[in-house]
Predict the 3D structure of the following.
Amino acid sequence: MIAPMTPETARTKSGTGSLAAGQEGTAVILNLVLIGVTIALDPLPLTAFMVVLPSKRGVRKGAAWVFGWLVSLAIVVTVTVVATGNNPPEPSTAPSLAGLAVRAAIGAGLVGLAIRQRRRMGRPKKPKKPPKWQEHVDNMSPWFAMALGPALQPWALIGAGAATVVEAKLSSWESYLALILFCVLASASYLALEIYAGFRPAQSTALLARFRTWMETHTDQVIIVGGLILGFWLLANSLYLILA
C-alpha cells in the first residue's frame, strides 16, 4: 500500500529534488570551467595565435581570429542546447549514458595523449616545417584569420564541453550566464593578448616573443599536465555517474 503524501513528505521530497538539481548544476559548471581553462591554455592554437598577432596589421587579424573563435564556440553551445530541446536527458537513460560515455572516452584519450607525450620527452625530434600559412602571415587577410581560429581549435576538448552542455538546462539567467562564461573563459587567453596588443602595441611585441618562446619550449609539459588533470577528471567523473 502506498502511503499518502503529507505536506511534510512533499516538502522533504521537493527539498531533496532541489538539492540534487543544485548538485548537478554545480557539477556542470565545474566541468565547463575546467574544460574552458584547458581550451584557453592549449599550446598549439595559442602558439599559432602568437604568430598572427605580431604580424603586419596583426591586431586587426587577431580580432578577426578571436571573433571566429568565439562564434564557433557559441554555435557549438547553441546547436547542443537546441538538439536537446533545452530538456536534458534523465539520468541512467540511453541518451544520458551516451553523453557520459563520450566524455569518458575523451578523458581516456587525453590521459593517453599525456602519457604518450611524456614517453616522447627527451627523444630527438625531427624539425617540423611551419605551416604554409605562416609563410604569408603578413599578407593574411582578416577573413582568413577569422576562419583559421576555429580551424585550429582543440575540437576534442570542445566535444567534451558539448557533452557537458547536454546536461545543462537553461531555466534561469544564471544558467545562461554559465554558458556565456564558458565561451569567454575558453577564449580568455586570446582576448587578453588581443587587448594588450591593442593598447600596448610596442610592449606587446617583446612580450609575445618571450611568451611564444616559453610556450614552444614547454609545450610537452603543458600538454602532459593539462591532459592528465582534465583527462582523469572527465574519466573519473563520467564513470562515477555511469555506475551510480
